[in-house]
């Protein structure tokens, strides 16, 4: 679930344009745009004190099997699992995106792009760790709502634009966000 997402610099809204500008000033060429795969370095936002800071971060924690990455964590158990222990409390991260991908259950395995109400930005919630001086993240998932259930039984935890700061800086709010209603998604075949 949520193994790939899209971060496009073209046709983005003002908030993503500001993020792209900040990333280019601080980390020129130090991140990927377009379709983000596990193992890619992507634009991200973390909290530092009361500030929101754009950073590049690598998609995936080293897995338990050689060469395999952990890319998702269930929001229902993220605070209980040893692999993610403490990260939700202290190291939450936002992955700005222009959508995320999932493959259909049909025999053709159709690839779909999911967005929220045709908004140009989707803010995926995750947790991060620092490994060998590098930020690495996983995306939090939750049970799918009716707009996603036909395609998959899980979906990413998504923050609205106005919830990004609170998710990053307020643990109680972050817990409520993972348990509250999920936004309705729009699905279209990916080109």
Question: Which properties best describe this structure?
Answer:
alpha+beta, 4 helices, five-stranded mixed barrel, hypothetical protein yedk fold, five-stranded antiparallel beta sheet, 191 residues, 17% helix
Briefly note the structural class of the backbone.
alpha+beta
Element pattern in H and E: EHEEEEEEHEEEEEEEHHE
Roughly how many Å apart are the termini? 19 Å
CATH superfamily: SOS response associated peptidase-like
Helix content: 10-25%
Share in β-strands? 35-45%
- Stated plainly, the CATH topology is called hypothetical protein yedk fold
C-alpha-based Rg, rounded: 16 Å
Number of helical segments?
4
Broad CATH class: Alpha Beta
Number of domains: 1
- Major sheet size, sense and barrel closure: 5 strands, antiparallel
What is the typical, i.e. mean, pLDDT? 90
What overall geometry do the principal axes of the alpha carbons give? globular
Q: Please tally the β strands and state the result.
A: 15
